[in-house]
Amino acid sequence: xxxxxxxxxxxxxxxxxxxxxxxxxxxxxxxxxxxxxxxxxxxxxxxxxxxxxxxxxxxxxxxxxxxxxxxxxxxxxxxxxxxxxxxxxxxxxxxxxxxxxxxxxxxxxxxxxxxxxxxxxxxxxxxxxxxxxxxxxxxxxxxxxxxxxxxxxxxxxxxxxxxxxxxxxxxxxxxxxxxxxxxxxxxxxxxxxxxxxxxxxxxxxxxxxxxxxxxxxxxxxxxxxxxxxxxxxxxxxxxxxxxxxxxxxxxxxxxxxxxxxxxxxxxxxxxxxxxxxxxxxxxxxxxxxxxxxxxxxxxxxxxxxxxxxxxxxxxxxxxxxxxxxxxxxxxxxxxxxxxxxxxxxxxxxxxxxxxxxxxxxxxxxxxxxxxxxxxxxxxxxxxxxxxxxxxxxxxxxxxxxxxxxxxxxxxxxxxxxxxxxxxxxxxxxxxxxxxxxxxxxxxxxxxxxxxxxxxxxxxxxxxxxxxxxxxxxxxxxxxxxxxxxxxxxxxxxxxxxxxxxxxxxxxxxxxxxxxxxxxxxxxxxxxxxxxxxxxxxxxxxxxxxxxxxxxxxxxxxxxxxxxxxxxxxxxxxxxxxxxxxx
Length: 582
Description:
alpha+beta; 3-stranded antiparallel beta sheet; Transferase(Phosphotransferase), domain 1; disordered C terminus; 5-stranded antiparallel beta sheet; 4 domains; Phosphorylase Kinase, domain 1
């Protein structure tokens, strides 16, 4: 193996710390000699360790990395060799890998997992278009380009030895907080506050220069009295400290991911292969925990094994562990070979689209598993609105059309275009790194949101009259469809969706009811003969489609406002500045 106590010598680079090692290779951090001191990663492969198969794999890896250029695939800058080793000089990724990121946080909020998966999907789409299969997708092979691991305000930081005593005091501090929750002390004015009161001397236990991510609470005055000996969190005194820290951690992590877009890159193409959609292989490749069942069972497999691996990665980001976490390979193989369908952990809180994607990726049968085309177009992946260099251009084009329709008096079309533009503006804000340009974009987005809100009120007033007319025709249609139980059931679903919307429940569940109802009614319309009932059915479908489209725009607007508010949340600065030990 190409590892030793001292890094090998390379003419143009100074190899420093060892980052990791495997069966055939060791990876070092290195600096290019000269004035610019470029930082790179050098993968050192010992020639003596290579057999015929591993040599072929290495040559394929070099060939693939030499030809592909993509923002989410690690770049091969050069490769060299000497009498003992082969050296791959690779792009440096300072944020570590996704495995470390997940394990330091246990699990990720769905919105953060989605940002990560979008980038993985973007890279896979590029590879798929070039008939390349990775065959070893796992969190350890997904690198973060940036200092996100040091900046994200979550419950893990690397602590220097000099601060261990302070960390011990921190643990004591949190223990005292827990004890305070069971019987919170009153403030000076002898009233109960929604705070956790702690004597002011506890502040002295915390070194002023130490920023530690576990303690996301901030010393401040109590709202109800002027007692400085209070710590105010997001929970009241009756809420558990664990829940409070979880809420703060999730909020800060979501905010950070939205405000600081950190590129992810696929790496380690040692098992990658050129595979057309109809090509099959049988060689065992990759890491067992992320291998598809057809590979574990040593059956013929194709490029769809990468989709299974993506499903495992997504599951791990959301729930903190892989679906088949096991103590031994035998136990792992038994779980993967099982015919039992994949189930999400009890109490899992994920959206309908996320659940659908996850379960379809983790389908043991490759023939019924999600296809690449379905994966790339899945609404939860939503590659169309992934933060990238094109987001701003798309947003500007749409907002110009929205302004034009607005000036023409076409309120409904203008509202739809404003909402579509905002779906691109928010990713554009996330992608922008310049603070001044980012602030300018935020101001523009706020203006467009305000105008969209005004149009929403006007369109709602216009629609209400139309919807009232269809209410009476819906009752007639119901009477005429007594011999059509499926039509009656669809109309009942529509009535439930309308009632939910009128009660202010404008969410994806309401939209799903509209879509389910429309699906049944469209089938009925296709089978209905000419006549009065067909006319009423057609009118009802048209009305429900208008409602569904309007609701979809409201959901877009609400999500946009939420993303923008998260991006501007004042708390984030204090949380973000508390993420690394100084």
